[in-house]
Write a structure and sequence with these properties.
heterodimer; A: 101 residues; mainly alpha; Helix Hairpins; 3 helices; 0% strand; B: 171 residues; Four Helix Bundle (Hemerythrin (Met), subunit A); 2 domains; 7 helices; flat
Chain lengths: 101, 171
């Protein structure tokens, strides 16, 4: 049984959908951020799979860029969450609707 | 061999992601996410990207998840209780999407005739630190330098957001 590009793409799709569903379903903002990280990680798998498919390591460079972007996103997102928690004493997105009403 | 390892690491990663979504406690979710990221490192190793596999564990499973766990620790109490209700009734069909995707994955496996494989083993040294560093400091030098500015901006932004407003130097 040979593992092909399609298998890796389907795996990445499954992981991405899991993260997407989690982002929609969960109400805890920290867990929602973690779901975003999972989605970013699944995109990295697609990059690496296509790199392997074309035997061209350019995709690896973009995965490293993606690592840096994910780290920046986590740092700023969590800083915002800490600040929200300090003011509102909650990170539940159902309670954060000042802009919605 | 690659086949067995792909199914092991792939199912571990999907399982870790699903458990992260399903668990009510934020700490338990974070630990399952670390599990999923370590499995992703195994997937990178299978794709003959050893450098990415190591970076995945160092940066994702190490640095980023420690940051998450630190914040959960600081915000303990309301966060640790988790979601009281996970989702409204109308959203439950969305949960069916990942299992459907797994079904599609199995169908893709069964109907694998006609799928193009890798066409031979990877070139010698493919994805090694030397190979990636050659690209990073050669063809993609500008992008490599710019990503350092992105990280610098992120540091300043996180400091500016997190610090007490009255103590910021420009106030």
């Amino acid at each position: 049984m040979e593992i092909t590009l399609t298998h890796y793409l389907l795996l990445a799709m499954t992981v991405f959908l899991t993260g997407m569903v989690g982002f929609v379903v969960r109400r805890n903002a920290i867990v929602m951020l973690m779901c975003v990280e999972l989605m970013l990680s699944s995109v990295n798998i697609v990059f690496a799979a296509y790199s392997r498919f074309h035997a061209n390591a350019d995709g690896h460079v973009f995965v490293l860029m993606n690592f840096a972007v994910a780290a920046a996103e986590a740092a700023i997102g969590l800083a915002i969450l800490v600040e929200i928690f300090r003011r509102r004493r909650t990170v539940n997105v159902d309670d954060l609707k000042a802009l919605m009403e | 061999m690659e086949g067995i390892l792909f199914w092991v690491f792939g199912s571990m990663m999907v399982f870790g992601g699903l458990m992260m979504v399903v668990q009510r406690s934020a700490v338990v979710s974070a630990v399952w996410l670390i599990f999923a990221f370590v499995s992703a490192a195994g997937i990178f190793a299978l794709l003959s990207a050893p450098f990415l596999a190591v970076m995945q564990i160092l940066v994702y499973a190490g640095a980023i998840m420690v940051l998450f766990l630190f914040v959960i620790m600081m915000l303990q109490g309301p966060v640790l209780e988790g979601d009281q209700k996970l989702l409204g009734r109308s959203l439950w069909p969305a949960v069916a999407i990942p299992p459907l995707a797994i079904v599609v994955m199995i169908v893709g496996y069964v109907m694998r005739n006609g799928l193009t494989g890798w066409g031979g083993p990877a070139p010698e040294g493919f994805g090694s630190p030397e190979h990636v560093a050659g690209l990073l400091l050669g063809k993609y030098l500008l992008a490599f330098e710019l990503i350092s500015i992105v990280l610098l901006v992120a540091i300043i932004g996180a400091l500016a957001v997190g610090k007490d407003e009255r103590k910021l130097p420009w106030k």
